[in-house]
Amino acid sequence: MKWPVGHRARAAPRKGAGRPGDLVIGADSHTCTYGALGAFSTGVGSTDLAAVMATGDLWLKVPSTIKIEYRGKLRPWVGGKDLVLYTIGLIGVEGALYSAMEFTGETVRALPMNHRFTMANMAIEAGAEERHL
User: Fold this and answer.
1) CA–CA gap between residue 42 and residue 67 (Å, rounded)
2) How far is it, in rounded angstroms, from Cα 71 to Cα 78?
3) Given a cut of 80, is residue 133 above it in pLDDT?
4) Burial of 59 (0-12, 13-18, 19+ CB in 10 A)
5) Which residue(s) pair with 103 in the sheet?
6) Fewer CB within 10 Å, N side or C side of the chain?
7) pLDDT in tens, 72-116
8) Could you please report the per-residue DSSP string of the chain?
9) Is the full-model pTM beyond 0.85?
């Protein structure tokens, strides 16, 4: 796949990267964004990523999952960022430490993709290793 010029976390999904069930590993804090597409995505250190590229091997500990279901219709001007910040306020900044956060429910399904990308990107603020919708 030829990658477009620009930030890969934004450009690569437009080219079909990061589909449901994919494993996306990167040395970038925005790698988790692919979780909005249903992929398991997480960041690793640059040295770790170089080793993966050289050997083709990567060992991961599968995190436990915290499933968060949102229901109901959001009020005007309330979006994905508000949902994730409210959730972090409830569980705390270490509430999802070394866990995967799964955001689901009718409210999430009704969100536009840019809000879903924001939610996937911000779950790290709760200590999550991975997040997906």
Assistant:
1) 17
2) 14
3) no
4) exposed
5) 68
6) N
7) 999 999 999 999 999 999 999 888 988 989 999 999 999 999 999
8) -PPPSS-HHHHGGGGT-S-TT-EEEESSTTGGGGGGGT-EEEE--HHHHHHHHHHS----PPPEEEEEE--SPPPTT--HHHHHHHHHHHH-TTTTTTEEEEEESHHHHTS-HHHHHHHHHHGGGGT-SEEE-
9) no
